[in-house]
Predict the structure of Transposase.
Amino acid sequence: MAGKREQPGDIVLKLRQVEVLQGQGKSVKEAVRQIGVTVQSDYRSRKEYGAMSRDQLKRLKELEAENQRLRRAVSDPTLDKLILT
C-alpha cells in the first residue's frame, strides 16, 4: 500500500518541529521518530527544502508556475514555425 504524500508546507512545518526537538536536547533519530517520519525522509526533505519558510516555499511554487507558463508561451510559436517549414 502506498503511503500518503505530504504537502510541501507540511514538510517545512515538520522540519521546524525537528529543529525545536533537537534544541531541547534530543538526537536527530529521536526527533524524527517523534514527529512520525524516518531519518531518510528527514534527510531528503532537508536537502530539498532546507531552511525555507512557508512564505518562501509559496513564492517558489508561484515562480515555478510562472516559468512553466512562459516556457509554453515560447514553445508554441516555435512549434508553429517548425510546422510551417
Q: What stands out?
A: The mean pLDDT is 85.
